[in-house]
Amino acid sequence: MAEQEWVTYRRMAHRPVEVMHAHFERHVYHLHSHETYSFGLTEFGAQSFDCRGASRVSAAGMVMAFNPDEPHDGHSTTELGFTYSIVHIGSELITDLLSDQTGRPTGLPLFADPVLPDPLLSAALHRLCASLIQPATELAADEALAASVAAMVRRGARRPLVNSSAILHGGASADIARRVRTLLDDRYLDPLSMDDLAEASGCSRFTLYRAFRTNYGLSPSDYQRLLRLRAARRLIAAGHPVARAATESGFADQAHLTRWFRRCYGITPGIYATAA
Q1: Which of 25, 201, 242, 275 is most exposed, with minimal Cβ within 10 Å?
Q2: What pTM was estimated for this model as a whole?
Q3: How confident is the model at residue 1 (pLDDT cuts 50, 70, 90)?
Q4: DSSP of the chain
């Protein structure tokens, strides 16, 4: 592979999900297909490919949607190459996520157009790929996965996605949110998934997510991160080194803690450490 070309590849530990982030200039994909659904986001440049008997171009900001076993090839449209992310998701997980959203068994979606110029889909897919490539909790990755699949089907598939019509009354919604919050309070350092929250709350992942957002104004993963940030603040205030505070409060490393500490508090952990 040429020096200016690069690839990063990740697999989720407990989900049939794989993601690739890459930059290609001279690489040419031979005609092939995947047994999974494959959703790609072109970030820089443009890539050309043949699919469904026609030539296609995905330029920066456009999304690609390939159904399982759908043949396609690919190469750069320009000499500068292209940078893109692509996530491969098993069909069984797609049906599981869609059934959770609709509250009933759901068949496999069919994407009619392999190129979708949709900014909302671009943003959803970017969030998903970033959560899989960069340090992120399993809970955050699960949330991004569910949101991205729902957005792709709602805006790109032939049959629209209809969310569950079940209505949660105030007391039921608050009770579900309270059970989820109790679990997060008790086990915020654990690698919790949406399945763990669903088991604790006794309802679907979509329902618990909606109830938690309604009652607390945060997603479960945002709340878990906030608990970890508070734990890091306590450790730093007690005189522990920032690097140690990062690992003991559930962050991947000091840089990961610093990034979120500054986003939420406006200062770095180092500044906070010297404030006493």
Answers
A1: 275
A2: 0.86
A3: very low
A4: --TT-EEEEEE-SSSSEEEEEEEESS--EEEE--SSEEEEEEEEEEEEEEETTEEEEEETT-EEEE-TT--EEEEESSTT-EEEEEEEE-HHHHHHHHHHHHTS------BS-SEE--HHHHHHHHHHHHHHHSS--HHHHHHHHHHHHHHHHHHHBSSPP--------HHHHHHHHHHHHHHHHHSTTS---HHHHHHHHTS-HHHHHHHHHHHHSS-HHHHHHHHHHHHHHHHHHTT--HHHHHHHTT-SSHHHHHHHHHHHHSS-HHHHHT--
